[in-house]
Amino acid sequence: MPIQPNSGGNETNWLSAHSTFSGGGEMGALMRTIDWGKTPVGPVESWPRSLKTAIRILLECRLPMYIAWGKEFTQFYNDAYRPILGNKHPAAMGISAQETWTEIWSTIGPMWAEVWQGKSFGFDNFKLTIERFGYPEDCYFNFSYSPVPDDLGNVAGVLVTFTETTETVLTQRRLQANADQLRRIFENAPVGITVLRGLDLVYEFANDRYLELVDHRPVMGKPLRVALPELAGQGVYEMLEQAYTTGIPYVGRPQMMLYRGQPPTLQECSFEVVYQPLPDEQGKIDGIVVIAFEVTEIVNAKRSAELANRAKDEFLAMLGHELRNPLAPIVTALNLMRQRGISEVDKERTVIERQVRHLVGLVDDLLDVSRLTQGKLTLKKEHFELAKVVVEAVEQCSPLLEQQHHKLNVQVSSTGLTVEADPRRLAQVVANLLNNAAKYTEPGGEIAIAAERVKDEVLLRVSDTGKGIPSDLLPKVFDLFYQEQQSSDRSQGGLGLGLAIVKNLVALHGGRVSAASAGRGRGSEFTVWLPLATEALHIEEKLETIRNPTQNNQLRILIVDDNVDAAEMLAALFSFYGHTIRVAHNGVEGLEVAQYFLPDIAVLDIGLPVMDGYELARRIRQLPGLSKIRLLAVSGYGQQQDRERSHKAGFNVHLVKPVDADELNAALFSD
């Protein structure tokens, strides 16, 4: 409330004060309540016009402002300045600025002394440690100091204009600290990081790791197309520009050719990269952050491993082929001995046949592994009862089971266990498990096969009373080439492929397999889960009668094989059946013989020198009178693509060495 004149008061002083402080808001009202006559500046009516004018300007100004008048620096301030004072208001009004700002007077006092000499100056974001709320506080201000003259033109006070910038400064410092920290992170990151600005993708920042990736070339400040011109035509510019224009990050593993080394040469490099669009404050993309990690060594190592794995698979396939070549004449010779009824060497022949079957089984395992690892083994699925393949597997394993005097217990229902599977491959699974049980069970042991339906699966168990499997070895039993350590005589034999083939074949059928054992000497159990067939399809088995050639059904047969022994054994076998035979040992010779011999059937080895069996087959069919000749391919390769290639070349049948006599006879007349 303004001071009202009492009976002894000075009405002129009150009216003068009311006129000077009018319209001054809250601070003007406060000034009207003060008895200025008791202050160093004296009563209002005695004030010089310059002070009154300055105060009226101060009170009307919306910017923080105060005036320190006279040598005592008596303070006047406006509403905008009031928050800067904190708890020092309202006591600060009308008292000395030195008393109000004791804590900073050592800083601002000398400045005011210069202002008293007529100088004006100011500061931006000037730091002052003030105590406006009872505790020291670092604050920042933009302010200026200007001299205020009296009516005679002499300096009589100081005009201070203030803007507190504490929040702005602290925010900028936090942002700068974050930016500095981010820069340090970028600079010390274990990956290459660069910032590309604008549509021209100009290098703005690149850490040391990134500079290493570009062979320490001076890229900063240059557009990407200028800095790394060799990237043209490799799609890198385009991927970055797409990320820039769409705002969609790119994550991938591009391969690119970069100049590296001295002298610079183009080198193939692989990277894991992220192209992250960088928006400005308005959200508009104005740059790209590139994060790159070189994986060239990893990619090359993977490529080398894949090549090595492919080489291994090709080696296994080639090994199987080369092993089958010498087996073919042996099997044919044995068949011929049996057909001729030579009984003097029955015992020896039986031994040879058994060992040949064993060797053929090993070769088949090698080729199966090759097909499985390359993903080239295809299944020919049918609907049938599981008992069907169990019976077939038992028949296959009977010689070994009888030899070891094992007792076999089979509990598999003939109905209710329908599966959709490849019967030959599923029989192979069961046979491999039976063989494994027989090999690792002491003579006279017990082996059991049991099957049951569990919900929507068929469960098959093969258990034994054999040597058992230590717990630390159980996770490895399905690994390729893995076998438990054997004695020096390797009485169990084998290549360690059987269980690996089981696991892969079961997986191809959508099933799973596991091994369990209570430990060494306590037997083992292998369990196979297979999906139950959704519906049982009636399969009508048709028994095809194999036509056996007789003297009354003679054929003209051309045999072309560069393996002389194999060719002669085949010729002897066909001659025994009364056929007319011609033999050639290379493609050119075979073509010449075919022209004059005009065979009904040609049995051609695929791997012939000079002209292979595929080319020979095509040329024979082009000869006059031989367009409908029956062609039989005999090869050590039996994968699906090999059979397809034979079919495209014009062969009627593709046989895989070694060929059984019954199979060969059947192929003479049927596909």
The helix count comes to 20
Q: Any idea what the shape is?
A: elongated
CATH class term of the largest domain: Alpha Beta
Structural class: alpha+beta
Question: What do we call the CATH topology of the largest domain?
Answer: Beta-Lactamase
Count of distinct structural domains: 5
The rounded Rg comes to 50 Å
Q: What does the average pLDDT come to?
A: 83
Oligomeric organization of the protein chains = single chain
Summarize the structure.
With 671 residues, this protein is of the alpha+beta class. It contains 20 helices and 23 strands.
Describe it.
With 671 residues, the protein is α+β, with helices and mostly antiparallel strands. It folds into five domains: 11-169, 2-Layer Sandwich (Beta-Lactamase), CATH 3.30.450.20; 189-294, Beta-Lactamase (2-Layer Sandwich); 305-373, Helix Hairpins (Orthogonal Bundle), CATH 1.10.287; 382-531, Heat Shock Protein 90 (2-Layer Sandwich), CATH 3.30.565; 556-667, Rossmann fold, CATH 3.40.50.2300. The chain has 20 helices and 23 strands. The strands form five sheets. Strands 6, 7, 8, 9, 10 and 11 form a six-stranded antiparallel beta sheet that branches. Strands 2-1-5-4-3 form a five-stranded antiparallel beta sheet, with helices on both faces. A hairpin with a 5-residue loop joins β4 and β5 (155-164). 30% of the residues are buried. Mean pLDDT is 83; it is low at 1-9, 485-493 and 536-552.
